[in-house]
Input
Amino acid sequence: MTKAVDARWTPERRLAGLWRFAIAISVVNLLGHTLLGFEQSAAVPFVALATAYSVELLLEASSAWGMGRPPRYRGGPRTFVEFLLSAHISALAVGMLLYANDSLWLVAFSSALAIASKTILRVPVGPPGPNGTRPTRHVLNPSNMAISVTLLLFPWVTAAPPYQFVENVTGAWDWFLTLLLFTSGTIVNTRFTGRLPVIVSWWAGFAAQGIARALLNGTPVLATLAPMTGIGFVLFSFYMITDPGTTPESPKSQIAFGLAVAALYGVIVQSHHIFGIYYSLTIVGLGRGCWLAYCAARLRHTPSAAATESPAAVASTGNIAAS
Output
């Protein structure tokens, strides 16, 4: 992705956002396994983290060796920790949202797949740089993609039940936890990721498809909208669909992205398939990846035009392609 594309998601904001995402999901996991009532074994987050860290470090070491550069995790303890923040978030998300009973190897499989997908599933974006290499971008949310693939390949695995987030709390605590996640998610996505249009359009689209399905099937509207009141929905809205690395930058494209995920979710659920919330985001991400690859291919076949454009025009073209 070109520099213009990441004008808002700068390295500084990315790092600040990663720290906050990592802290938030760590707190949720800690509370979940001690107070809230997570159904998974207490060993799950440790298996997920150990696998994700190992794969991330191995892939980076291999890439650095092949390219003749120093690994990005070198530079002191803080650099090492910050390098692993992304893997930390993906691993805890996988461990928290999958339920594989006592099959810890499936947690390891999904965690490894999440990390590897960032290296394997990449598409070119924008024209070649001065050195002739083309920038690439991973287009699938790592943890969501890994969860989707695991659910498809292993039918005995299921998604974690939504009630686990408040199984052991009652009364005002139910509202407090939801409000806390809602507030923290709003702050992070307003100050750092700039993905509020994705969230709002996803909510609007989810409500629209719920009402449409209720009218089509003759079922209560509140039943189709009930998922919006759960903590699982809040977590997905603020911490998964908003992934800056795999969602568009421009507000209009963000709105289209959120509406597309909601519409596809409605189609999947109407077709009597479960886990639509994960599948819809993965499929829309794949579609966006194909579009980015197509736009990059068009730039590739017009080298003379790209060579004569000013740097600002080339950056603008890359911004449109990445959106």
Observations:
- The beta strands are 98-99, 122-124, 136-138, 158-159.
- Residues 11-322 form one domain.
- The longest strand covers residues 122-124.
